[in-house]
Design a protein that fits this description.
158 residues, six-stranded mixed sheet, four-stranded mixed sheet, 4 helices
Length: 158
């Protein structure tokens, strides 16, 4: 549901799911070797505090200190959100969903584009997203977490 309108997306292609698995693995390995605690949630409903719509990012991450927002679903603002772009979702992910994440206070928004094999990290600066792109991106929220395009796109058929 976005702005009261139900959006249905077709089931994801193999590459979409492979990228999600690779990103999750990278963050899981980081969490096991760092002092940062938190919770990863693939495709979980998010009820943002501005009310109304339910969003379902490809991946949400909640810091340990914010775990109280996890009550079956996520009732509050994830600290980090990741969306994997597809033809069906690209405009929403880069448009209205990005605006909602920014205005509600999501700290980091990771965008992965399998079609272009590119990754971006958008950092919330209160009034705008600071956008970074490249083959190797470092999280500000999770010190020491490096996400590389090579890792994210590994295991994908050509």
């Amino acid at each position: 549901m976005i702005e009261g309108e139900l959006h249905m997306s077709p089931s994801a292609f193999f590459n979409h799911n492979r990228v999600i698995a690779n990103f999750l693995t990278g963050v899981e390995v980081y969490l096991k070797t760092s002092l940062v605690g938190g919770y990863l949630a693939p495709e979980t409903d998010v009820f943002l505090p501005d009310g109304g719509d339910v969003l379902r990012p490809d991946i949400s991450f909640i810091l340990e200190k914010n775990k109280g927002i996890v009550i079956g679903h996520i009732h509050g603002v994830p600290d980090l959100v990741c969306e994997v772009l597809s033809n069906a979702t690209r405009d929403r992910d880069l448009g209205i969903k990005a605006e909602r994440y920014l205005s509600n206070g999501v700290k980091e928004y990771w965008i992965i584009d399998p079609a272009n094999k590119s990754i971006e990290l958008w950092i919330n600066r209160a009034t705008h997203w600071e956008k970074k792109s490249g083959q190797n991106l470092a999280s500000e929220l999770l010190p020491g977490l490096q996400i590389t395009a090579e890792d994210v796109f590994s295991g994908m058929p050509e």
